[in-house]
Design a protein that fits this description.
Elements (H helix, E strand, L loop, with lengths): L2 H4 L6 E3 L9 E7 L2 E6 L3 E6 L6 E3 L3
Antiparallel strand pairs: 1-2, 1-5, 2-3, 3-4
InterPro entries: DUF3553 (IPR021938)
Protein name: DUF3553 domain-containing protein
């Protein structure tokens, strides 16, 4: 898992760099590099943090 993904905590908003069509997602959990995110347009997805670097969304 990379440094950015290691900082992700439940409640944080993120986007998937390869799937902008999924919309913004909210981190549900981050356990052992497996990040569960509930995306607005895709639903709940488990991301392998060693393969995908999620992009944190800050602000409004």
């Amino acid at each position: 898992m990379n440094d950015i993904n290691a900082l992700l905590e439940p409640g944080m908003l993120v986007s998937h760099p390869d799937r902008p069509d999924w919309g913004i997602g909210q981190v549900q959990s981050n356990i052992g590099g497996r990040i569960t995110v509930n995306f607005r347009d895709q639903g709940k997805v488990v991301i392998d943090g060693s393969r995908v670097t999620l992009t944190p969304i800050f602000g409004d």
